[in-house]
Amino acid sequence: MNRSTKRCSRWTLVRCRLGFDPPHQSDTRTVYVANRFPQNGHYIPQRFADNRIISSKYTVWNFVPKNLFEQFRRIANFYFLIIFLVQLMIDTPTSPVTSGLPLFFVITVTAIKQGYEDWLRHKADNEVNGAPVFVVRSGSLVQTRSKNIRVGDIVRVAKDETFPADLVLLSSDRPDGTCHITTASLDGETNLKTHYSVPETSVCQSVSQLEALQAVVECQQPEADLYRFVGRMTVTHHGEEIVRPLGPENLLLRGARLKNTKEIFGLAVYTGMESKMALNYKCKSQKRSAVEKSMNTFLIIYLIILLSEAILSTILKYAWQAETKWDEPFYNQKTEAERNSSPILKFISDFLAFLVLYNFIIPISLYVTVEMQKFLGSFFIGWDLDLYHEESDQKAQVNTSDLNEELGQVEYVFTDKTGTLTENEMQFRECSINGTKYREVNGKLIPEGMTDDSPDGSMPPLNFLNNLSFRERKIKIYAVSLCHTVQISYDQSDCLAVGGDPFSHANGFSSSPMEYYASSPDEKALVEATKRIGVAFTCSNGDTMEIKTFGKSEKYKLLHVLEFDPNRRRMSVILQTPSGGKVLFTKGAESAILPFTTSGEIEKTRLHVDEFALKGLRTLVVACRHFSPEEYIDVDKKLNSARTALQQREERLQEAFSYIEKDLQLLGATGVEDKLQDKVQETIEALRLAGIKVWVLTGDKHETAVTVSLSCGHFHRTMNILELLQQHSDNECAEQLLTLSRRDDHVIQHALVVDGASLSLALREHEKLFMEVCKNCSAVLCCRMAPLQKAKVVRLLKTSPEKPITLAIGDGANDVSMIQEAHVGIGIMGKEGRQAVRNSDYAIARFKFLAKLLLVHGHFYYIRIATLVQYFFYKNVCFITPQFLYQFFCLFSQQTLYDSVYLTLYNICFTSLPILVYSLFEQLVHPHVLQNKPGLYRDISKNSLLSFRTFLYWTVLGFCHAFVFFFGSYILMGEDTTLMGNGQMFGNWTFGTLVFTVMVITVTLKLALETHFWTWMNHFVTWGSIAFYFIFSLFYGGIIWPFLHTQDMYFVFVQLLSSGSAWFAIIIIVITCLFPDVLKKVLYRHLQPTSTQTSQNEQNGKRAECFPVVKRVCQALDLIHIPTCVRKKGNYISCYLKRAWREEIN
C-alpha cells in the first residue's frame, strides 16, 4: 500500500514537471513568503505562471500558419482558395493567376494589417516585461526584470510606481502599515483607495525583518473579478500561529499605482497572465451588425446564382454536343483518351471549369474594402469637434469599428440615469432628523418653516443642535460623518507654511487644506455637508476615525466595515466610541433600511423620503444599533469566522451582515441633488422625433426617477403614466398587466413605470403580456433595478419577434452588463470609473453627444456601407454576366471573353478606389440638416437600404446593364466586323475589350450618379480610375511581354481606339445604360420624393440663394488671423470654419 502511494505521488510529480497536468488542481493556492518551502521530502511545490504578460496573438514561428488558418475560416477566402486549387488541377479556361492574385492580394493586405497590430502588441509587452523591479532574495534587495518575478517573491514598490504583479501588502513606510493607491488604469477611478497590511507583518519594514518573516498565504485560484479576493495569512510568531483574513483591501492589483506612500513591500500571489488585470483581457462577445448579416445573405444568393449558371452551362454544352457535328468537328478531333474518359468525370470537370469561369460574380475584395472602410471611417468620430468636451478635455473614442453602421439603425435606447442623464455632482439639500425636516442655507441647517434671518456669522453653524442632547447630536449627525469610506488628502506644504496643524480653521470650519476622495459622489457630498455645518471628518488612520466639532476633537476606533453591495443596497461601520461603547452606523436605500428598523420616527421619515424623491433628490436613510459587550463579542466572532473562511466566504459574510444589520434605530434621512446634464431634454426629444424609443433604467426609487424623467423630457406632462409597482405575486402582476393592456385610448400617449420587484415577476411568466404593454407606451421607466435586471430588459427587447436594434448607454460598473448585452454599447466618461467605457463599443463625454453620434454619424455610416455592399454585387454582376452570355455564341466551349489581366485587375485596380472614397466621404444631406431634422433618421431605419427589394433592384440593374454591354457590342460587330479603315476585321479579343471598356466606364459613372457630396478626392479617383484603365491598356497592349505565354492583347486596345465606330459604340452604350437610371431618379425625386430628397432640394435652393454671400465670407475668413491660443486646438478652428462655409458652396 505504501509502495503504491509512493509510486503514485512520484508519477504525479513527473507529470507536473513534464507539464501534462494543469498547475491548478485545487480550489486554493498556498504561497510561502520568500519561497521558504517546508523542509520535508513529501512536499511538491505548486506550479505557477511566470510574470510575463502576453497580449500578442502570434509568434515568429506560428504567424504564417495561424494567420492563414484564421483567414481561410472566412467563407469567401476559402471559396476562392478552392477555385484556385481547381484551376491548378484541371484544364480551365482562365489562368490560375486570375483567382490566385486577387486572393493573394486580400490575404497579404489582411496579414500585413494584423501582423503590424501584433508587432505593436509585442513591443508593448516587451516594455512591460522588461521593466526594472526590486525583490528581496537571499537577504538583500536585488534588481531584476518584471518578467522574472515569481509567486512567493517579496517585491518592493516605490511611490508613483505601478505594481508589477498582484501583491498582498506586507508593510509600508507608514507605522500602521497602510498605503494609498489609484486604480485608474484598471477601472478608471481616480480617487485614492486605502489598502491595509495585517498587524503581524506591518512592523516588518526592513529587508532583514522581511527575510526573517515566517508566513504562509492561502488564497483562491486566480479569477477576473477585480473586487473579489478570498484568502488568509498564517504568521508564525514565537512558535505561535496567528491566522488573519485577507480580502480585496489587502490585495494590490497589477497596473494600480502607489500614491502618497514612500514605499511598500508586497508578496506576489498572482503573476503574469494569472493576474487580475490580465484575466480581464478577455475578448468581448463578437457583435455582428445587421449590414454584415445582410451581406452574408446576399453572398449566399449570389453563390446560388453562380451554381445555377455553371449547371445550366454544363447541361447546355452537352445538349449542344448531342449533334455529332458539334461534338467532334473536323477542326477539333478528340484524342483516344478523351473518347474513352468517364462521362461522369467529364461532366464534373466541365462543371468545375464553368464554376471557375463565372467565379468572379462573388466579390472577393468586398470584405477587405469593408474592413478598410470601417477602420478608416471610425477616425471621423474621434476627429469630430462637436463630440469634444472641452471642460474634461475628452473626445469621443471608438473601441470597435465593426458596428459603425449599426449607429444608423437604432430603434431602442436604454439609458442609465445617474451620471448619464445627470451630472453625478451631488449637492446636499435637505435632511430629516428625528422626524423634523431641515434644509441647508449658507452652511446652516434650518428647520422646515423657519428662515435664516440672522446676519452672516452671528450665530454658529448647526446652532439647532444646542437644543438637543449630546447623545442625540452624536448619533444623528455623527452617523453621517463616520459611516463612509472617504479618504483625505492633505496639502502638506500649505500645512507646514501655516504652522503645522493639518486642519486650520477659519470661522470654525470654512477652509481647510485638505480634500476628500470618495468612490461614491453621494458619500463625498454628505461628508462635505457635515463639515460645512460644523462636524468635520478630519482624519482616518487605519483603525481610527477622527471628527472635530467647533475645534473639539473626538476619536472613534474603527472596528469593522460592512462593505456596500448591490444586493443589500447599504453599507455599515462598527465603531468604538470615546466612552468605550460599541455602535453600528448604517446607511442605504429606504427599502434596504426601513424594514429592519424597530424604533425612531419611521412613518414621518418615510413621508419625508417620499417628499425628497418628488423633488428629484437622491435619498439615503441612516440608522444605528448599539451593542452590549456580549452582543459585540458574538458579532466580532461571526465576522472574523466569515472573513477567514476560504470556501463560500461571500455567502457566510452575507449571513453575518444580515445577522448584524437588524433591530435598527432610525436616525433620519438625507436628500442630495444631482443636476441634469446640459441639453438632455433636447437630445431625448430629438431621439423621439427620429423614431427611437427611450427607456430609462435606474436604481433610484420610483418617485425620484419619475421626477427626473419629467424634468428631462423623457415623460411629458400630457402623458398618461401607467404603473406596475409593488406587485407581490404572479397572479397580482398578471391582473395588473391585463388591466394595462386593455386600455383603448390610443390617442393619448402612455408612459410606463415599473419597479425591479414587479419586473422580476413580469419576466418570469408574463413576458409577452409585458412586452405588449411596453410597445404601446411612448416611454418606459424602470426603477429600483439591479445590474443584471438591466441586461435582462435589454435582452427581452433584443430577442423579441421584431428583432429591433438596441443601444445601451451608461457610465458606471452597474451598467456594464446592459452595455455588453445591447447591439451597441456606449460608455459615458463620467465620475463612476471607466468600467463602462472599457466595456463599451463607443465612448462619449456627455449624453447630449448621442444625438449627433446617431443622427449624423450613424446616418452617414449606414448609407455609405449599404451603397458599398450593393454596388460591389452590382459591378460584379455586370462583370461576369457577359461571360455567361458569350458561352451561347461559342458553343459553351468555356472560352473566356476577357483577358486574364483584366479579370485579375477589375476588382483590385480599375473599380476599387471610387467606391472606397465614396464610402468614406458621402453625405446625402448636410450634418446640420440631419441634426435639425431628426425625422430623416426614419428614412434609413429597419435596414431599408439593404432590404430585399433594394437588393433585387441593384441585381436586376446589373443584369440589364450586362445585357446592354454584351448585345450592344454584338449588334455593332455581329454582322460587319470590318470596322477599321483598311478593312481589317475585329477579332474575339477586340470584342471582349470593347465590352470591358464600356463596363468600366459605366460602373464608374453609375457610382458618380449616386454621389451627392463631391470632394477633390472623389473627382480624382473617379476620373482617375477611367484614365488609369486607358493608360494601362495602352501600355499593356503596346508591348510584347516576354514572360507571357501568349500575346493575345498585343495592339488590340490601340486598334480598338483607332476606330470611330468603337468610340461611337462606347458613347451610345454608356448613355443607353445610364439614361433610364437618370430618368428614374428625376421622376422619383419630383413625383414621390422621400423626406431626405426633399431636404436635399431645400438645401440646394438655399445654396443657390446664398452663394455670393458665402463666397465673400470665405474670402474674408482667409484674411482672419487666428490667435495662437485658439490655434492650440490643432488649427481646428480656422480650418473648421472655412471648411463649413466651403461645403455650403459645393
Report the β-strand fraction as a percent range: 15-25%
Q: What's the total count of β strands?
A: 35
Q: Helix share of residues?
A: 40-55%
Coarse shape:
globular
Tell me the span between the first and last alpha carbons.
Answer: 92 Å
SSE class: alpha+beta
Mean pLDDT: 79
Q: For the CA atoms, what is the radius of gyration?
A: 37 Å
Main beta sheet, described?
A: 11 strands, mixed
Low-confidence stretches: 1-24, 454-470, 491-512, 1106-1146
Q: Count of DSSP helices?
A: 41
Domain P-type ATPase C-terminal: 837-1090
Main location: other
Subcellular location: Early endosome; Endoplasmic reticulum; Golgi apparatus, trans-Golgi network; Membrane
Keywords: ATP-binding, Endoplasmic reticulum, Endosome, Golgi apparatus, Lipid transport, Magnesium, Membrane, Metal-binding, Nucleotide-binding, Translocase, Transmembrane, Transmembrane helix, Transport
Tag the structure with descriptive keywords:
single chain, 1146 residues, alpha+beta, Calcium-transporting ATPase, cytoplasmic transduction domain A, Rossmann fold, Calcium-transporting ATPase, cytoplasmic domain N, nine-stranded mixed β-sheet, globular, disordered N terminus, Phospholipid-transporting ATPase, magnesium ion binding, lipid transport
Structure explained in plain terms:
It is found in: Early endosome; Endoplasmic reticulum; Golgi apparatus, trans-Golgi network; Membrane. InterPro entries: ATPase_P-typ_cyto_dom_N, ATPase_P-typ_P_site, ATPase_P-typ_TM_dom_sf, ATPase_P-typ_transduc_dom_A_sf, ATPase_P-type_domA, HAD-like_sf, HAD_sf, P-type_ATPase_IV. Belongs to the cation transport ATPase (P-type) (TC 3.A.3) family. Type IV subfamily. It contains 41 helices and 35 strands. The chain is of the alpha+beta class and 1146 residues long. Among the domains are: 132 residues, Calcium-transporting ATPase, cytoplasmic transduction domain A; 195 residues, HAD superfamily/HAD-like (Rossmann fold); 205 residues, Calcium-transporting ATPase, cytoplasmic domain N (3-Layer(aba) Sandwich); 251 residues, no CATH class. The strands form 6 sheets. Strands 16, 17, 18, 21, 22, 23, 24, 25, 26, 27 and 28 form an 11-stranded mixed β-sheet that branches. Strands 14-35-34-33-15-29-32-31-30 form a 9-stranded mixed β-sheet, with helices on both faces. The relative contact order is 0.07. The N terminus and C terminus are likely disordered.
